[in-house]
Amino acid sequence: MTKMIFVNLPVADVAASTAFYKAIGMEQNMMFSNEQAAAMSWSDTINVMLLDHAFYATFIKKRIIDAHTDSGALFALSFGSRDAVDAITQAALAAGGRELHDPEDMGYMYSRAFEDPDGHGWGPFFMDMAAAAEAMTPAEPTAA
Question: What does UniProt give as the signal peptide span (predicted)?
Answer without folding.
Answer: none
